[in-house]
């Protein structure tokens, strides 16, 4: 492993000293959750019910079919979002953080170092879930914004040619603004989404009052009648009904920002009622006039008010897109810290909020993909074919990992865990099969994205292990080196810090410096950075220091997976241990690996070349670890891979 590579540690909570403080439940937190957590699922009424009847299902918008679809929508939202995520999975938090990586961390921690095959399976599931998340993230901004802007066609058909260019302008502007941070814009998100969900509910109630019999769809018998009527053809409808629950995983993934209680209050008190009332209102309108199914959402208001609804829905779609982009940044940061992806340049856009980050490379790659989708597919209806497969796959992964957590951490009996999460996975499996039928219509896209991400992650992890083995082969244990160092070389004033992946062995950069310069600094610090499986490590447990004698010290700096390592900060934390840090008297020695292709690489030719490319593109150690660039000295090391 490279001298500055982070390594994952599975220390228990006591080892980090980090205790997650419970979020106080207040109106501000609930409002903030409305603006960030529910953006994706909150824009589903723009297209979910419409696509169920239009996207290849073959169902006519008759009263019986509408009641059947509404019944499925109601129970999908109730079982998948409310019971599975809000009630059950949100109980599983890693010191307050949620998401697929948090689930995997909890499950592996519950193994207590046993069952290597089970641990490996959990890691593979986590990587698959992470890859599917990226596959979903590239589609969400495109389909959300286009669905909103297409309301212009309902207001004035002559504006239809402007839908595509206007969607592109909005999306490109959104990505360009990412570098400025989301703090200022974020203050507007909550109030806008509050208005959005209130409007959804009011518009739905308006139509339901006109036709209250539509509420009969709450009875699941109507869903049963629809299944028996359609037979296997119901899977085509499932492929669009799932659009009503996309974004459910965001409720869990964003739990660390707000806490579970504000999210539960927001969902049960406003979001879920607003969404369901709007779906029932759309259903009542279709029953009254089946012809409106093509733009049923915008038909909820009189024509004179469509433009107002277009503006509001566009704002909601932008917020949904922003939530997804922010989620990509956060998850990428966690993946880098945990060793799943190579180091990248990360900008912290807030001095007070640790979660507000900007990753330029990811931003521009994501923007390129979204723009290509908008231009290539041309409409939200066409994009609906690509939407859903990655989401349902990620939901199945969440269900499997949650079952593992229930058995290993919550100590449920395995029959109980299998029964509960197996039952809740039935809709996910049905939706996944349904969306697999859409592979020829665009469902191949998220699969390709997910495969490329999975291939990249597994190649990076395997390659780093091979590099680490190469570096450690023949390396001398540090204490053994000190025992053999009978006559110390000439010592010079100051402190030398050598970054390494293993503080128990002599770093290659140290040996190179000693060989070529023939001198040692007065104080030598061998520093290892460990990324823990908790979000944040307390200051009191930031460093472990060991004095080895002869002026040598080892320092192990602990950082959570949401933190970015800061080496000067870690050295300042060593003061209580007798190490005084003075930047002007300290030099940092970093190993720079030059990877040389091997004729018989253990990675194979394709993975070898890709790993070398990833290594070359990784951010410099001194940038990623916040080392003063004018005090950093890089020493080369050639490795065959």
The average pLDDT value, as a whole number, equals 86
Strand residue content: 5-15%
Percent helix among the residues?
A: 55-70%
Would you report the number of β strands? 9
Largest sheet, if any? 7 strands, mixed
Number of helices: 27
Q: Which class best fits the helix and strand makeup?
A: alpha/beta
Distance between the termini: 12 Å
- Quaternary structure type: single chain
Shape: elongated
Radius of gyration: 27 Å
Structure commentary:
There is one protein chain. The protein is 57% helix and 10% strand. The protein is built from 27 helices and nine strands. The strands form two sheets. Strands 1, 4, 5, 6, 7, 8 and 9 form a seven-stranded mixed β-sheet that branches. It has a two-stranded antiparallel sheet with strand order 2-3. The longest helix is centred in the middle third of the chain and has 32 residues, at 306-337. The model is unreliable at 1-23 (pLDDT under 50).
What's the layout of helices and strands?
Blueprint (H helix, E strand, L loop, with lengths): L6 E3 L3 H4 L10 H10 L2 H4 L5 H7 L8 H26 L11 H11 L5 H22 L2 H10 L1 H5 L7 H14 L6 H28 L10 H10 L3 H8 L6 H6 L1 H4 L1 H29 L17 H32 L9 E2 L8 E2 L1 H18 L2 H4 L5 H20 L5 H23 L7 H29 L5 H7 L5 E11 L7 H10 L1 E14 L10 E7 L2 E8 L7 H6 L13 E11 L8 H13 L3 H4 L7 E9 L1
Parallel strand pairs: 1-5, 4-5, 4-8, 5-7, 8-9
Antiparallel strand pairs: 2-3, 6-7
Helix pairs in contact: 2-11, 2-16, 4-13, 5-12, 5-16, 5-21, 6-7, 6-20, 7-17, 7-20, 7-22, 8-10, 8-17, 8-18, 10-18, 11-16, 11-17, 13-21, 20-21, 22-26
